Amino acid sequence: MVEVVVFAVAGAACLVGAVGVVLSRNPVHAALMLVMTLFGIAVLFVALQAHFIAAVQVIVYAGAIVVLFLFVIMLLGVDRAAELSLGALPAQRWTAAAFGLGGAAVLVWLVAAVDRIFKGAHSYELERAGIVVTEADAPATSYATDVSAIARSLFSEYVYAFELTSLLLIVAVIGTVILARRSGYSEHGGESAPAENAPASQEARQ
Amino acid sequence: MTGDPLFADGVDWGDIGIMGIKVLVAFAALLLATMFMIWFERKLISDMQHRIGPNVAGPWGLLQAFADGVKFFFKEDLRPANADPLVFRLAPYISAVTAFVAFAIVPIGGVFTDTPGRSGTVTLFGKETILQVADPPVGILLLLAMSSVAVYGVMLAGWSSGSKYPLIGSVRASAQAISYEAALGMSVVAVVITAGTLSTHEIVRAQAGGVDEWLLITTGFVPFLVFLISATAELNRPPFDLVEAEQELVGGFHTEYSSIRFALFFLAEFMNVITMSAIMVTLFFGGTAGPVFFGWTWLWPTVWFLAKVFAFLFVFVWFRATLPRLRYDQLMSLGWKVLIPVMLFWLMFLGLRQLVIDQGWSPLQEVVVVLGVSAVGLALGWTLLAAALRAAKRNTVIEDLGDHDPEEMMPAGASPDAAGPGEDG
């Protein structure tokens, strides 16, 4: 009973937020609606006993990524209703609709497939799908299995993927710094040097 | 064994009633403590500045915070014409709610022992329970989640005011909070590695053996110092109060707020100070640990806890009276160039030590391994950092104050996302 109520409320928050992201004319409102969706998803994770994922969902997505969105929106001053009708690509709407419907179809198919696997209940099917149901997967496990299970698979089975992802992030950070530095571009305007001879002038000032 | 023993045998209406009482008591206590803190700060800082401070409302001005509250209630609630009405109303509530929720994970009483089995529990109405509102499995991560959500309150308040100074204040505040969250998170990781758990209840229990088991000592002071500095920055307290630098920004992000909405920000700010002090006590100073003398044994831990929190409240006011405000570039370079590299190195060190303990190596092996790897790591890290800083210095035009972008201040390899114990091991 409680689970149904939690699912209904969190699911409704997700859906309202998702629709709000698309329908809001103000980018800041859209970002806030996105936060609402993310919170709804976090609550759903908690309902599934995935506490760690829920916390990470809030810390990373709501706490860092959307804050970054808002930061950019505020700094670039695009916080007024944007004019959306201009600059549309030809046939953009039809393409978007096609991709949207395709995505929805894949989602429905996935849910149906997972549902069939878990209800169809042939162990070889589970095995083929790479799903091993153990005691630890039973509901109401303590956090020890939640956090340590994630840590164990992250640092054993998926360690290369994990390390490569961190490498990718570092490359992205360094790339950003280089791009931001390259042309002597100063976002604060005013006394910024002309773009071409900026490095030379920087050397000169040293 | 984590989680509240109250729910171990299913949930009935009695359990829900006890939870309700706990939430109410925690909320009321936090509000009272906040009012006390407002009075305490004004009185103490007056004393440090050779002034008298509030002395009219009640004995020693004790009712000053109450009088302020009444005044806020009856003031006119102004809203600038340019403000975004919905977000303008929403922002103060985000600040206040996050300040309260983070307090829920702090154990405020209960006698803890380091023996196996349940400890730190009390019996309420014939049911065994813990003296904290919640002991979620993710424990201390809730603090990080709440402090990252609290950024929204400040950010949206500044943006929705439709006014210049609040916007500048809120952009500064968000940049500061995001920068110092990394260092704060890493010092929490140090605690989690050493205590071996995320739950605040278990963290307190890991420190129950005596002062030499307090995480302040077992993590080696550095994480505590980093936590204290980052917490001060997260709280926007002096010397990191650039957010509401009165001389430059009028009142920072809440310039346009008045009446009860301003009171909510004010409340949230002081509530956060108390919450952070309580978290520091929980993480590093044994929480409720202390000798139990006579009489009611369940009362002493709460007394010790309150005494420790009080000491930190004093420290925060002391900071404010003593230290001048940092410049914005100093703030950023302290966060990114000092605290984060120091914490990365310290995490590597703690991880190594934990490895030695887990593997059961002999003391000689321990010394050789820890010192050897630490020396190599330190040398490597130092060389890279020095090279990066020299390169950065060569490329940097002397910019105006406050022109630093946190992304640019990052030393090579210290990505906040990728930072963690796994990176160093």
Structural class of chain B: mainly alpha
**Estimated share of beta-strand residues of chain A:** under 5%
End-to-end CA span of chain B: 28 Å
Return Rg of chain B in Å: 23 Å
The Cα radius of gyration of chain A reads: 23 Å
Question: Main sheet of chain A, how many strands, which sense, barrel?
Answer: none
Task: Give a short summary of the structure.
The complex is a heterodimer of chains A (206) and B (425). With 206 residues, chain A is mostly helical. Chain A has eight helices and no strands.
Give an account of the 3D structure:
The complex is a heterodimer of chains A (206) and B (425). Chain A is an all-alpha fold and 206 residues long. Among the domains of chain A are: 1-79, NADH-ubiquinone/plastoquinone oxidoreductase chain 6, subunit NuoJ (Four Helix Bundle (Hemerythrin (Met), subunit A), Up-down Bundle); 113-144, no CATH class; 158-188. Chain A is built from eight helices and no strands. Mean pLDDT of chain A is 76; it is low at 138-143 and 187-206. By secondary structure, chain B is an all-alpha fold. Helices cover 62% and strands 2% of the residues of chain B. Chain B is built from 14 helices and two strands. Chain B has a two-stranded antiparallel sheet. In chain B, a hairpin with a 2-residue loop joins strand 1 (121-124) and strand 2. The longest helix of chain B is centred in the N-terminal third of the chain and has 36 residues, at 13-48. The radius of gyration of chain B is 23 Å and the shape is globular. Chains A and B meet through helix 2, helix 3, helix 6, helix 7 and helix 8 of A and helix 3, helix 4 and helix 5 of B.
Key terms:
A: 206 residues, Four Helix Bundle (Hemerythrin (Met), subunit A), 8 helices, 72% helix, 0% strand, disordered C terminus, B: 425 residues, two-stranded antiparallel sheet, 62% helix, globular
